[in-house]
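Contributing new records

If you add data, match the layout below exactly. Sequence lines come first and carry their own label; structure lines follow with theirs. Keep one chain per record. Anything else will be rejected by the validation script.
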Amino acid sequence: MNATVEIAAAAARLVVEEGMEYAAAKRKAGREFGARAELPTNEEVEDAVREHIELFCADTQPAELRALREAALPWMQRLAEFRPHLSGAVWRGTATRLSTIHLDLYCDDPKAAEIALINAGIDYDSGSISRPGGRGGEPLHVLSLSAPNRALGEPVTLHLILHDFDDLRGALKPDTRGRSWRGDLGALQQLVAQDPAAEVTR
C-alpha cells in the first residue's frame, strides 16, 4: 500500500468517526508522512470513506443518511428563492450522523439569505470558508445553524454557503467520473424517492 492510499484510509476514518471535513482530514492524516507523500484527491478519500462505511457502519449508515437527506428537504423548500443545492457527504451518499448538511445557495444578493433567516427568527452563526478547489477570490460567507432531528435523536448542523448566482453554472460540472457534486431540490426528492441511501451516479 503506497503512502497516498494510506493517507486516504486514515482520512476516511477521521471523516466517518469524527465528522471531519475532507480537507482537514487529509491534512491531519498526511502530517505523519511529512513531504514523502502526495495527499489524495477528494475522490480518493471518498472511495476510502465508502470502504470504511461498508466495513464498519453498514448496519447504521443507510438510516442515518436517510435522516439527513430528509432533514435537508424542508430547508431547501424554505430557501427555494435562493436556488439551494445539496452538496457534500449528504448528497454524495457517504454521510453518517456526524455529518453536516451543506446547502449551497446561489443568490442575486447573498445578504438576502441572511436577512431571510433574521426575519424568520432563526438563530445562526456567521463564518467563512475558502473557495473550493483552491480557487482565489474572497472567501465564501457561511451561515451555520442547528435544527432538531427526531430520527437521529439529536440536532443536526446545517451550513448555508452563500454564492453569487453566476457561480451556479460552474458548480454543476461533474467530477472526473461524471458524478454530480450537488443537486437541487427536485434531484434530492427523486433520489430519496428511488433509494434514500443510494450513491450519486449522475
